[in-house]
Amino acid sequence: MTLKRLALLLSMVLILVLVASYWLIRMLVIIPILEREVASLQWHETLAVRQYFSQQQMLLSDLAISPGYDHWAKSVLEGGDATSRLTRGAEVAMAFGPDLSLRSFLAHDSREPDHFPILVGEAAYQRARLMPTMLPEREMVKTGLLWLGGNLYSYSASTVCSLNKLGCTLGYLLLLKPMPVSEVESNFTRLGIRVTARPARSEDLALPRLMNLTGLDEPVRQRDLLIRDSLSQGAWVLSIVYSAQVQHGVERREWIAFVLLLLLLPTTNFLLWRIFVTPIEFGSDQLLQMERERQYRKLTVNMYVKEFQHLVNAFNGLIGRVEKQRQQLQDLSQTDSLTGLANRRGMDHFAVREWRRLCRARYGGAVMMLDIDDFKAYNDEFGHQAGDDCLVCVARELKRVARRGEDIACRYGGEEFCTIYVEVQPETVEKLAESLRRHIEKLHKSTALLKRPISASIGVALVEPGVDLVKQFHDFDQLVRIADQQLYLAKQNGKNQVRMWRLSTAATEKPA
Ligand SMILES: Nc1nc2c(ncn2[C@@H]2O[C@H](COP(=O)(O)OP(=O)(O)OP(=O)(O)O)[C@@H](O)[C@H]2O)c(=O)[nH]1
């Protein structure tokens, strides 16, 4: 798998992990917390509804036990105006407005005071035939909610005594306060709660009761609560649609966040690409190129990631050390250990490089072969060590005359040396060769290493600037062979002399 694909895959996995994590946190943490919160809020909203209804009943209850109630009730029952201020106790009822109505009825069964038969209207009043005076000590005041003729009422029922031929008959006064459904609904609309009421059906009787708010821990959108009417033994259902809701579905904001997250994909991919892929690709391309060319260099890549940069630094350090060791090995393999000059391999290496330049630039050059005369005799006379010292002394002289960067002096083998001069004037080479010969002649005077005077024969192959070498020679060795031939001629001619072969642009002569 390529790094590009890996980066793409990683960024996709990253997004998926983000979405999955969000989803899990939402389902396992946020929603349960929300549900608890909403359940608590809904509980309070239910409580507010219950309190509203309780308050309505309490108001009637307060009215029924207030001191002016009896007189007011009596006058109203006898046809007085319920809202008249002249009626004693009317102020008690004034708080309820003109909607308040008072009904009376006889106790159906005084043994069951909790269950009043509902008798309303004129008939009930006639049957009650109330005495002009009410019993001051009413046995009880009962309050509740009543669904009557399609309307909702809050009521209070209190006992009264009606005198007739049979004596005192227990009766009831029913104080009714209409609670229009629209009014109830609008009362809760301002709280964000929607409340509707309807008569209960038989299947509704199992619903939880409004006045008993236990077991309402689960948040729901709408809750139906049963209100039992103890007067009529009827029941009705109050439906509460809560303002506090748990949104289980994915919200628009979440979709937007999800889309933004998807848009993050190319962004994260780009960042992964820039931070990881591009530098690594660049580095690996460099490594592949090095492998192809078999030339190892330091990586020139800047990693953004610290650890990767450490790897690059370590690689570069390693390459640096290997290159240094390779250079040392190359130097060693191309250096003569006795004299410190380049050996034959070193000379070949140099020659191949310079030959190309020589051919291309035609700046001229020279190969000088030098051989110590009668070195065997010197060796035999003073020993091998003295012979080595002699070689070292001659090598120093060669170094001295080939000190320019472009020149190279090397030990060609045994007591034979070779110096290559590039970009040099012919006269200079002549002078250098002759001066070298003379210096070697007088060398014993300047160093104690030499036991006696020595001499050297020199053969030179000189190519003047401008000569087209390609036309004349196959390779550099041809020049070396010519110089060697000149050396041979110098030896033949009596040694301790310089023999020079020269190729000028004008000359057409072939080497001898
Ligand atoms: N001490 C020492 N002697 C060496 C070394 N390499 C070669 N020789 C000796 O150099 C001598 C070369 O002798 P020859 O080839 O006969 O040449 P020559 O005696 O110089 O005679 P001409 O070249 O004709 O002047 C041999 O005796 C080799 O043993 C070396 O590294 N150290």
Automatic annotation (TrEMBL):
SUPFAM superfamilies: Nucleotide cyclase
EC number of the protein: 2.7.7.65
InterPro entries: Diguanylate_Cyclase (IPR050469), GGDEF_dom (IPR000160), Nucleotide_cyclase (IPR029787), Rev_trsase/Diguanyl_cyclase (IPR043128)
Keywords: Membrane, Transmembrane, Transmembrane helix
CDD domains given in the database record: GGDEF
Pfam families noted in UniProt: GGDEF
MF-aspect GO terms: diguanylate cyclase activity
Source taxon at top rank: Bacteria
Domain GGDEF: from-to ranges: 363-503
Leader sequence residues: none
Transmembrane segments: 6-25
SMART domains: GGDEF
Primary enzyme class: transferase
GO BP annotations, alphabetical order: cell adhesion involved in single-species biofilm formation; negative regulation of bacterial-type flagellum-dependent cell motility
Catalytic activity: 2 GTP = 3',3'-c-di-GMP + 2 diphosphate
Co-factor requirement: Mg(2+)
GO CC, one annotated term: plasma membrane
NCBIfam families: GGDEF (TIGR00254)
Name of this protein: diguanylate cyclase
Organism: Ferrimonas sediminicola
Lineage, uppermost ranks: Bacteria, Pseudomonadati, Pseudomonadota, Gammaproteobacteria, Alteromonadales
